[in-house]
Amino acid sequence: MKERERAGKENSLEEVINRLLRAYQLDGRMKEMDIISAWEEMMGKAVAHRTENIYIKNKILHLKLNSSVMRDELMHGKQVIIERVNQKAGEKIVLDVWFE
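and the corresponding structure tokens:
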């Protein structure tokens, strides 16, 4: 392929990576990992410290907490958690929160 033909088809690295993630259906998983890594930033140190396990499956955020008091408080604020997570992701990736 000639250099001139290639020059017209240049894409940014970000575009190429995003296409690759979409092609392999990994873009949603990457957003989930971003949410998990930003959990302390979104919810604060107190909640993050008491969170033993966190994962997203079938648009449900699963939380395992080591404090029953914290679990009860967060159950009352489920909608706030959903809104924060979806806002951070830039789309609706969580529809509900389950506590273990």
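(Above: one complete record from the training split.) The mean pLDDT is 87.
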